[in-house]
Amino acid sequence: MEEFFYDVIIVGAGPAGLTSALYLLRANKNILILEKESYGGQILNAKEIQNYPGILSISGYDFATNLYHQVKNLSGNIKYETVLRVEKDKTVITEKNKYQANCVILATGSSHRKLNIAQEKDFLGKGVSYCATCDGNFYKGKKVAVLGGGNTAIEDALYLSDIVSKVYLIHRKSEFRADNTSVEELKKKENVIFLLNRTVVSLNGQEKLESIDLEKEKTKETIEVEGLFIAIGQEPKNEIFQNVVDLDEKGYIISEDGVHTKTKGILVAGDTRVKTLRQLTTAVSDGSIAATTAIREINEKE
Ligand code: NAP
């Protein structure tokens, strides 16, 4: 196991982590970004971003890729390794290496919430998906369902309605969390059927998904679909950091001032922390604040 030393190690290459990297690189800090999957985080799934100030419209993929190139153009160092542990002394241990830093920024975002239903795992990639923009094309001309009542579910249903033959939008309530304008836009789509006040109780099929059973006030119904897009929100994965941070009951990292954790030199940024609004704008705001905090605290030490 090799050992390396950096000014700052950023865990997570989503919008918060990459924004931190951008600010730190521009301040000539020696940094490492550790990412377990691909750069971009959840914003990669956004078909179109229209609420980022100063940008009329951009796809999530283009936004993330531009930000990634901004970081790479400044010689930003990204390693695709899974972090296993962070120690109080700012040692970061991955499955391959051990790194040491003056400061660590946790910007691990959140992951798709699972429905936790039988066969959900078995049908992953065989009918079950958590990303409409990634997998929608596999269902061209077919019938699919989208589960959820937030902005992601409504945007997924809108996106899929242009590709597939029929979309069932299934939601457990009759009210939506999603913006009203998007819901109204979806209602205008002729191939979208709203199935409200219903829960998904089982997934059926031999090799791949063929139908799903729904329940409404103890009445069951079966709908034939080849795809189920689960869009029921996000959840953090912060258990591995519990030795250095406090978590709230949902697993988000607690920070009194929105940037510091309970451990000196371990900062937090983006969706992974306790906060009232999880948006692209707030993620990049967090990223810039964490970076400037790190720069100030490192410079004070020197
Ligand atoms: P979300 O807003 O948390 O909505 C999750 C939805 O899934 C809710 O309707 C919830 O139902 C439902 N749900 C949760 N657990 C469920 C379960 N076990 N079974 C069935 N349904 C379940 O999540 P999101 O849509 O992914 O959005 C996350 C954040 O990103 C939000 O702040 C959202 O506004 C933002 N976002 C913004 C945009 C945009 O601005 N263009 C696009 C996408 C996302 P209940 O309502 O009954 O709780």
Describe the structure.
With 302 residues, this protein is an alpha/beta fold. It folds into 2 domains: 3-111 and 234-301, FAD/NAD(P)-binding domain, CATH 3.50.50.60; 114-230, FAD/NAD(P)-binding domain. 24% of the residues lie in helices and 26% in strands. The chain has 6 helices and 17 strands. The protein has helices at 15-26, 60-73, 132-135, 151-161, 180-187, 280-301, and strands at residues 3-11, 31-34, 78-79, 83-86, 91-94, 98-106, 111-112, 128-129, 143-147, 166-171, 192-196, 199-204, 211-216, 219-224, 227-230, 234-235, 266-268. Strand 13 and strand 14 form a beta hairpin. Helix 1 runs parallel beside helix 2 (60-73), helix 1 (15-26) runs parallel beside helix 6 and helix 4 (151-161) runs parallel beside helix 5. The mean pLDDT is 95. Bound molecules: NADP nicotinamide-adenine-dinucleotide phosphate. Residues 46, 51, 113, 115, 147-153, 155, 172-173, 177, 231-234, 278 line the site of NADP nicotinamide-adenine-dinucleotide phosphate.
- CATH-level-4 superfamily name of the largest domain: FAD/NAD(P)-binding domain
Given as residue ranges, the uncertain stretches (5+ residues, pLDDT < 50) are none
Global morphology? elongated
CATH architecture of the largest domain: 3-Layer(bba) Sandwich
Number of strands: 17
Bound molecules: NADP nicotinamide-adenine-dinucleotide phosphate
Radius of gyration: 21 Å
Specify the structural class.
alpha/beta
Q: Helicity, in percent?
A: 10-25%
Largest sheet: 7 strands, mixed
Q: What's the number of structural domains?
A: 2
Q: So how many helices?
A: 6
- The H-and-E topology, N to C, reads as EHEHEEEEEEHEHEHEEEEEEEH
Overall mean pLDDT score? 95
First-to-last CA distance: 28 Å
Beta-strand percent range: 25-35%
